[in-house]
Design brief:
alpha/beta, Rossmann fold, 2 domains, 7-stranded parallel beta sheet, 16% strand
């Protein structure tokens, strides 16, 4: 049986890694995967040495706080790779950890494939040299990444964005379906639904959620038909949200479902920067993107991203500020409320944003990304019929 090491430490990456495991299982492949992942991956036979729900940290201060645990998992993965000699190591996003792991794995003579690679085309371009040295191939999500990696002579293959495989087309423009689903959730026709997505990490919840709730309170004073939908990340315990909601008196829904199904219900969104912004954008929901770090991490982040005009993924992909984005000290409840209110009062502006977000789809390729990823990985995994 072929061994494969997979590192999927973040909420979005976990889903994509899970889809690979499901595809192999459907094919009847005799592949044993181990590494870092979710409980759902473990349910598919994945052997976990690191739990994604414990490793999804971001920022210098946050990483320092969890350094001991992260280092322990890192060392265990290297040890297991030396012992098991996996056919290939698949790393997804999580660059601080995965680029260092790639260097160690490369020294063992084991190929490393980077799937969901860091956005080196937007910031920290120096990382591409590390990828060039230690990764056998990069599987890219966006067509414009191809010429970037080719310029640096990094073997790459365009597979498209796996988010499209998760998207039920009825959720995009079917207004009748939207009305039915909103009624099922107790949302009246006259209500304006503000969605709040504070992030998928504990540190993001601490930095973002209170401001989001305060922005909703400010907005509700002017718009009494406002209803709040709080969208819980798939890997996040719903109960954790209750700590922040004890004094929240506005009408709200606390949801935990497949992200697209939750986003579909809202009219506008206040969202922490990350993959969620792309999910919101694909459903053409007007949004304001915000992000706050610990003060030290924020200073370092400003230095890192100063060569880029944007940090919000939808704005990066479309190369202009289609939706407002605010960072660190610019993120206040009052400022967020003002930006959100424009979507309620300025219908021409709102329609323009929706139309611009509709352009995202063309940048993500076609559905079937997981199938193309599995096909690309066949280059490294034994295809002997007896092992299928």
């Amino acid at each position: 049986m072929d061994e494969v090491l997979i590192v999927a430490a973040e909420a979005s990456s976990v889903t994509y890694a899970q889809r690979i495991l499901e595809a192999w299982k459907k094919q009847g492949r005799k592949i044993h995967a181990f590494g870092v992942g979710s409980q759902e991956m473990e349910n598919l036979g994945f052997e976990r040495f690191g739990k994604s729900e414990e490793m999804a940290v971001v920022g210098i201060a946050e990483i320092a706080k969890h350094y001991g645990h992260l280092k322990s998992v890192f060392n265990k993965l290297v040890e297991e790779a030396q012992k098991r000699r996996p056919k290939v190591v698949i790393v997804l996003d999580y660059p601080e950890f995965n680029l260092r792991l790639a260097e160690k794995i490369h020294s063992l003579g084991i190929p490393v494939v980077y799937y969901i690679s860091p956005q080196v085309w937007a910031w920290r371009k120096g990382r591409v040299k590390t990828i060039q040295k230690f990764c056998s191939k990069v599987l890219v999500l966006f067509p414009f990444e191809i010429p970037f990696y080719e310029e640096y002579h990094v073997p790459c293959e365009f597979v498209g964005h796996p988010l499209l495989d998760e998207l039920d087309e009825r959720l995009v423009d079917d207004q009748e379906y939207l009305k039915v689903r909103r009624n099922q959730c107790g949302i009246a026709d006259h209500e304006i639904v503000l969605g709040l997505m504070p992030g998928s990490r504990h540190s993001e919840l601490e930095m973002n959620f209170k401001i989001q709730l305060d922005a909703a309170r400010i907005l509700a004073k002017k718009h009494t038909n406002l209803k709040v939908a709080i969208l819980t990340a798939p890997n996040f315990p719903k109960e954790k949200m209750h700590e922040y909601l004890e004094d929240f008196r506005l009408p709200y829904l606390l949801l935990k479902d497949e992200p697209f199904r939750m986003i579909h219900l809202v009219d506008l969104m206040l969202v922490a920067s990350g993959t969620a912004t792309l999910q919101v954008g694909l459903l053409k929901k007007p949004m304001v993107i915000m992000y706050r770090f610990n003060w030290l991490t924020g200073i370092i982040a400003k230095l890192i991203v100063r060569g880029s005009k944007f940090f919000g993924l939808v704005n990066l992909i479309l190369n202009r500020e289609v939706v407002p984005e605010r960072f660190q000290n610019e993120v206040t409840a009052e400022k967020m409320a003002v930006l959100l209110e424009r979507y309620i009062t300025d219908h021409e502006y709102t329609e323009r944003v929706k139309n611009d977000l509709g352009l995202l789809r063309s940048q993500l390729g076609e559905k079937g990304a997981t199938k193309r990823v599995v096909s690309a990985l066949d280059e490294y995994i034994n295809l002997d019929p007896s092992k299928k």
